[in-house]
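TICKET: design request
STATUS: open
ATTACHED STRUCTURE:
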């Protein structure tokens, strides 16, 4: 009896020390990030929601050797932002070949927000249909009653069809309508960039709706939500207001940095100023981060220097911005910059860069650190 008890105690102790070993005490940007089961977290291009007494991380499930969606959007839960428990697939790809989210579509940059009025969790993501490359440029939305899902696909499509930017004057509309759409212009030439800034692609897509690729969503202090995405052939960002239920666009939107070729928007608000960090467009390869600020979500937006500091700062530390997470009540890491290191040949091995935002001369700074511990 005594020896059975000793054996039980030894086993319990071994289990406890194993569990303790699995517990992480800090974040190591760029390293393998094991979940509580010891598996590298699979939630790329994602975002984090604070709900209840926990943090919920949603992201793209990446497969071994393809960037196509074979599984869907995953969800992880944490209380300390360091140790994450896998909660399963929040939005599953469909087995129906006719569904827009059928297996082998492309699902990117999912973000979940909670709607206080409806009590629903709303997920927005960039969707490309199976077999169409990146041509569809659709915004897609899914909804759930519980934070972990299951999320039901609601709709996808181009955005704000038949609407001009809400800050445009009659003269702006006349100017874009005067563009000679029959003029052949070679893609990526200075003339093409200039024309895109003027609104050539906006005009082209006016009736069918605007393109929506890299994206995020932002809920303002007044509960209004905004969808921010790369539009107009990735040349111009749009910030578009969402309806009160967060499930559709209201038709009010502005263009940001026309012709400046921004992707990967991540946004936060501090003391009444909106800050946005983006990237340039170089596919899966990293480039130099950009930063903008505005006194109002609809602008005017001012461009600033790259906020990254440290090794490979001019390549966003080899990553690309994804989300900026507010951690209310924490002074040392009130906002966390989240980025992805993409591994297009082995997507599941993509890494995460999480770094606290600090301030210098009134502007955000993202300083590289090999390891750090968030305060929650
Ligand atoms: C960069 C984007 O930020 C990613 O989300 C993805 O769309 C790749 N481009 C595809 O090349």
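STATUS: resolved
RESOLUTION: sequence designed for all positions
ATTACHED SEQUENCE:
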């Amino acid at each position: 009896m005594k020896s059975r008890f000793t054996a039980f105690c030894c086993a319990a102790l071994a289990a406890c020390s194993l569990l303790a070993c699995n517990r992480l005490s800090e974040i190591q940007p760029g390293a393998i990030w094991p979940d509580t089961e010891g598996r590298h977290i699979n939630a790329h291009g994602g975002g984090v929601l604070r709900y209840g007494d926990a943090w919920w991380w949603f992201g793209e499930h990446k497969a071994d050797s393809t960037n196509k969606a074979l599984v869907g959007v995953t969800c992880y839960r944490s209380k300390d932002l360091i140790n994450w428990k896998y909660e399963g697939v929040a939005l599953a790809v469909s087995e129906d070949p006719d569904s827009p989210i059928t297996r082998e579509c492309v699902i990117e940059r999912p973000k979940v927000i909670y709607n206080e009025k409806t009590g629903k969790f709303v997920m927005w993501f960039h969707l490309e249909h199976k077999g169409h490359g990146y041509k569809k440029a659709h915004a897609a939305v899914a909804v759930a009653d519980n934070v972990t899902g299951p999320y039901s696909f609601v709709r996808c499509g181009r955005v704000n069809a038949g609407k001009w930017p809400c800050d445009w004057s009659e003269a702006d509309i006349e100017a874009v309508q005067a563009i000679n759409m029959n003029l052949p212009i070679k893609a990526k030439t200075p003339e093409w960039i200039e024309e895109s800034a003027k609104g050539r692609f906006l005009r082209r897509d006016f009736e069918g709706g605007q393109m929506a690729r890299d994206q995020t969503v932002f809920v303002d202090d007044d509960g209004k939500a905004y969808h921010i995405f790369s539009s107009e052939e990735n040349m111009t960002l749009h910030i578009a207001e969402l309806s009160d239920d967060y499930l559709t666009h209201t038709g009010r939107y502005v263009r940001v940095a026309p012709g400046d070729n921004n992707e990967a928007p991540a946004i936060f608000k501090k003391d009444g100023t909106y800050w946005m960090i983006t990237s340039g467009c170089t596919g899966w390869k990293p480039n130099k981060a950009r930063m903008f600020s505005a006194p109002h979500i609809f602008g005017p937006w001012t461009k600033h220097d790259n906020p990254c500091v440290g090794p490979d700062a001019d390549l966003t530390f080899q990553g690309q911005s994804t989300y900026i997470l507010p951690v209310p009540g924490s002074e040392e890491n009130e906002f966390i910059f989240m980025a992805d290191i993409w591994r297009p040949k082995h997507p599941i091995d993509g890494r995460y860069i999480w770094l606290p935002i600090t301030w210098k001369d009134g502007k955000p700074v993202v300083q590289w650190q090999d390891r750090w511990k968030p305060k929650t």
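CLOSING REMARK: The longest helix spans residues 2-22. The radius of gyration is 22 Å.
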